[in-house]
Amino acid sequence: MIPQYLVDFDLRELPTVETDCIVIGSGIAGLFTAIKASEDRRVIMITKKSLMESNTRYAQGGIAAVIAEDDSPLYHRQDTLMAGAGLCSSASVDALVNEGPEGVRELIRLGTLFDKEDGVLALTQEGAHSHRRILHANGDATGYEIVRALVQQVLEHHNIEVWDDHFVIDLITDDGECVGALVQKPNGERLFLKGDATVLCSGGAGQLYRYTTNPEIATGDGVAIAYRAGAHIRDMEFIQFHPTALSYPGAPRFLISEAVRGEGAVLRNIKGERFMEKYHDLLELAPRDVVARAIVSEMEETKSTFVYLDITHESADMVKHRFPTIYKTCIGYGLDITSDWIPVAPAAHYMMGGIKTDLNGESSIPRLFACGEVSSTGVHGANRLASNSLSEAIVFGRRIIERVRCLPKLNKTHISAGCDLGRQEHPTQAMVERRLKLQKIMVRYVGLRRNEEMLHKGLEELNRQLPIFGGALTKREDYEFANMLICSLLVTESALAREESRGAHYREDFPQRDDEYWRKHLLQIRELGIVEETSDDV
Fold it and tell me: Catalytic site residues (predicted)?
């Protein structure tokens, strides 16, 4: 079994720092939650790199909210439930669609400059949305603009203390509740950070896969540390692969936003043939899992490693104005998207599963909250609707802090948690090599298409890495790999258990959706394994 703690320690021997609220992570979820908490609480915000580095920064498409007069929360609700393939929580979706517009207004009050046309907020449409409800900034740099505005607020707030380049190794629990975290400083020293509430906002796990749109920091840390602490982890088999990441020699898997298709781009195979009509009535605007699998099918049929995204029929001025970041990035690699077809292929993009929370963002462990991609609020179900993730972070960030304000102070003076397994440092394969091997295992056996034989093989390969938990881990890359290994095991085990195809989870040996038996969730609990969960919503 995975141990509760990654390292040996004794709290009595470590320095203790106390605060009201601990926020771990600096994407939109962490920044917004910290700002809300700081209105009446002292906040320590921890980021393992820097405030500006997160998945949010790279979000291009925008943030979904009902703004237009011809739109309504009911339409947004229907679109979200349809994309979620029967596994959304209706109460969570109701919260998202009804509270999202006020969340956007709050972002604007905090300094976010969304694009406008003729003095009103500009809205675009994305895949599986029935209306234009996607707000964007600087054309295709929405995430960066939101992070810019929120970081400025955080840095100016006297109640927020930011710890850059610090790593949360584990959560500390006492009598079943979370009392803080074991943190490693940049110089390698460790301390106990004690808090009345701990909010995990540590983002996703795209780095489990060799090809991903996520930055290098997206290593699934939050899910792994919550799992070790005993929290319930839900729906980890549902990994969303973005259909259109740049696939070009020498270039990273740069995201080519869903909004490009929303503005009229079409997909063509290497023969130049448009193909989405063979796969879905919504063509290029079908749900992401459908589009991603269609692209893989065309790649296999034409023996190619990519397909083309073609927006050359639109005016060059419109393309440059609407997608300046994509245009500049591609031109840097010799691709002019106003006249050239863009070579694209699917890449790991978003984790629908995560730490199970209630409507207040609280996990199964009292005083431990989760917000953003690390959480499983029930909004996304089996497949996230485009641009709902930024809205979710705002809506649930506010709900979390309302709940935190109701918590009594943590009155424990003596917390004697510790771990002494006598771990010894021993020569190991370089972590960079282990990481690359893990990523290849996940791409080969636990990718867009799965079957029992592949998943068993993947599990077998991953289990060979388990001995690392018996050795002394000391550096950030050690902890990251341990977290990636745990998340990979969770994804693979749940993918093996779910014997159907639904949303982003596709089993070649069980290609049909089975609502009669499988309209349920899979929980993973460290001391119990996999537990099936049904609710009134599913």
Answer: 288 (proton acceptor)
- Read off the pLDDT band of 140 (50, 70, 90): confident
Q: Measured between alpha carbons, how far is 493 from 456 in angstroms, rounded to an integer?
A: 9
Per-residue model confidence as pLDDT tens digits over 219-255: 999 999 999 999 999 999 999 999 999 999 888 888 8
304 token code pair: 């190619």
Polymer length of the chain = 538
Q: Which residues are catalytic?
A: 288
Best CATH choice for the domain 242-349 from the list 3.90.700.10, 3.30.300.20, 1.10.1660.10, 3.30.230.10: 3.90.700.10
Separation CA 22–CA 196 (nearest Å): 8
Q: Where are the domains of the chain?
A: 11-238+352-404, 242-349, 428-516
Question: In the structure, how many helices (H) and strands (E) does the chain have?
Answer: 14, 23
Whether the predicted model's global pTM rises above the 0.70 cut: yes
> Bigger pLDDT: 126 or 48?
48
Q: What share of the chain is helix, strand, coil (3-state, %, to 5)?
A: 35, 20, 45
Q: Does residue 85 come out as left (phi exceeding 0), alpha (psi in the -120 to 50 range) or beta?
A: left
Contact status, residue 219 vs residue 484, Cβ threshold 8 Å: yes
Query: Rounded to whole angstroms, how far apart are CA atoms 392 and 370?
Result: 12
Domain 11-238+352-404, CATH = 3.50.50.60
Strand order in the sheet with 233-234: 375-376, 354-356, 233-234, 521-525, 529-533
- Helical (H) or strand (E) element with 183: strand 177-184
Distance in angstroms (rounded) separating the CA atoms of residues 56 and 243: 18
